[in-house]
Structures are given as C-alpha cells and as structure tokens.
Write a structure and sequence with these properties.
With 100 residues, this protein is an all-beta fold. Helices cover 0% and strands 28% of the residues.
Amino acid sequence: CQPCPADKQSPAGSTSAAACTFKPCSAGFKLTATGCVQCPANTYSGAGASACQPCPADKQSPAGSTSAAACTFKPCSAGFKLTATGCVQCPANTYSGAGA
C-alpha cells in the first residue's frame, strides 16, 4: 500500500492516489484546491471550514481568527465613544479623539 501525501487522507480500501483528498483544515483556516490557507483579517472559520466567514461590517479580527467572538468593534471616529453595542456619538459638552 502506498501512503497519501502528508497533508492528505483516504478511506480504507482506496485503490488510487485520486482517493487521497486534503485533510480538514484547523479552525482559522479554509480549504482551497491546493490545501489549507489562513483566513484573512476581518474573517474567521471553525475547524473543517471550506470558507472564511466575514465579521460584521462594524467589527474586525486578526488573520487566522477561529470564531465570531474574535470579531471586535473597530475603533471609533473622533466625536464618538465605544460602548458594548458599538460606537455612539459623544453627548453635548463632551468630546473624543479618534480611536476612543
């Protein structure tokens, strides 16, 4: 019996190299035609994913994120502050710089 390449697997009783397919990807990666690649920034994936899921429009995440929990609110613009639900405008008689 001939082994599949290191990053591939096949079911018992396989009869050709064509039966060797890529192993499922780890969380934070997606499967492509050439193997597993890391999810880019502002996306995430769980184990075995064939696609990376985008973070919501007002959130960001680092490359290789493994769950939606990694998506955090983007820094706020000047005149806004970050709350548990996102950026909100500063009230009258207050101010903030960018990134508050």
